[in-house]
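tool=predict chain=A
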Amino acid sequence: MENGSGRLQKLESRVFSGERLGEEEALFLATEVPTPLLVDMADRLRRELNGDRVFYNRNIHFEPTNQCLYDCLFCAFRRDVGTGPEKGGWLLGADDLLRRLEAFPKGTLTELHITGGVHPGRNLEWAESFLRTLRAARPELHLKAFTAVEIDYFARSSRTTVEEALARLKEAGLGSLPGGGAEIFAPEVRRRIAGGKAPAQRWIEVHRAAHRIGLPTNATMLYGHVESAAQRVDHLLRLRDLQEETGGFQAFVPLRYRNGNNRLSALPEISADEERRVFALSRLVLNNVRHLKVYWVMSGMERALGLLRCGGDDLDGTINDSTRIYSMAGGQEHPCCDEKGMRLAIEAAGRVPCERDSLYRVLER
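tool=predict ok
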């Protein structure tokens, strides 16, 4: 009978040769391998894929609305449709974003990251007009916009297909999709926590369709709530399958559940050790997705820098205090890091800062 050490060596060989791990093998990594060994393997794979570079970009986020049809138990961001500012709700448009952009003249940003709630008054035609307005005003900025859940709603509310919706949005200026809305793919978990939003297969269909027309995307996993290790593995393997089919994922972003101000707040947040294991496992299972993003807003910069040692090679961007999704759930109240601070933090972690654009092309300035 093969001992654990021999089994680990075989799995390590398979991972570094680019082979696909099976469910049982991935679950062995998730549950049986000591954290230091798991992290070491992930860090070596990171170095093989990306060297010592840590990527970042100069971006801001824009969240058009937190009024949402769906009612996810984990979400502190969401408000009922029609909720006004006196109760923490907002409904913003392209003009509001353009006013914010006045503080960021040409050359100071490369990307707008746009996601928000699913509002019944906003359909595909609204999204097209929104993107065209932004592209006309700031054509130098890459528009990374709308989760698969938002795309699904745009298509259904405008009575068209996902493929047609994406093609129209691309023509209007859409450059790529973020990875939000994936949560956990396991249907029993999704039914419990995800408030009736698009099922896992629909999320996958949207990203497959985006990849087919040349729109790159990210992928995410919300972990650390009610899911099991096996359900995390299932989620990762489904993403790996789609990446093998299309090659369209640029980065994977593990998102830790924060328990502030939501209906799962009785759940404790996972330990730092478990967080390190999730990142390392993600790097090893998704060895066909080049980049593993440590979204520093999720945990703060100090903790994020530690996660770079677990296979991470990207910190997202400067943000400039432009997102409230995590701060409303207990994260950093005003997430902001200028470019100098980002580079110094990366260097302090012993890595090489590398500015990128939204398509992971290195920018030399």
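The radius of gyration is 20 Å. The chain has a mean pLDDT of 95.
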